[in-house]
């Protein structure tokens, strides 16, 4: 077995061992819900189908469908669970599983929209967990699925971001503010080069168990 395969296997076994540890070994599990605004980088290069460029006048020619060059701002809804793996005095590491949806994002073409679902498990580092406000950074990767006015497709995706968790007078309830970037290939309603960056910013609530 190659060194890379041994590294992946070791990491997997460590993750399984930590997740299977008794609940008392680590501090807590969290679950929550967030609402975010979404803005995206716009297409840089439009690839024109040759038939569309000449008007497709030949009888055997099928014109290419129109392609959107602009994606409107939208709203996302996200649910997540997280389990603390390792805790220290000044920081702790959690494994998290967010599931995010962005429904009905419009484009510069009338009646052309699409929806996004992203599942990107990953890790979160939280600093100063005993403070009233705790900053964190988060990253992960998984799948991003597009559907709507175009073929349904699934691409790989990645995310990176950070934010703050704030305590409330209720011991099991917290608040979260976050900014992150969800990166993937572009949706099928855009026949363009380059990737899609969805910048999400918003907040929500989390429950600690």
What does this structure look like?
This protein is mainly β and 209 residues long. The protein is built from 2 helices and 9 strands. It has a single domain, classed as Porin (Beta Barrel), CATH 2.40.160.20. Strands 1, 2, 3, 4, 5, 6, 7, 8 and 9 form a 9-stranded antiparallel β-sheet that branches. The model is unreliable at 16-27 and 46-53 (pLDDT under 50).
The CATH topology corresponds to Porin
Helical content class: 10-25%
- Mean of all residue-level pLDDT scores: 83
CATH C-level category: Mainly Beta
Find the count of extended strands (DSSP E, 2+ residues): 9
State the shape.
Answer: elongated
Number of alpha- plus pi-helical segments: 2
Biggest sheet descriptor = 9 strands, antiparallel
Radius of gyration: 21 Å
Strand fraction:
over 45%
| Domain tally | 1
Low-confidence stretches: 16-27, 46-53
SS content category: mainly beta
Reported CATH architecture:
Beta Barrel
Distance between the termini: 40 Å
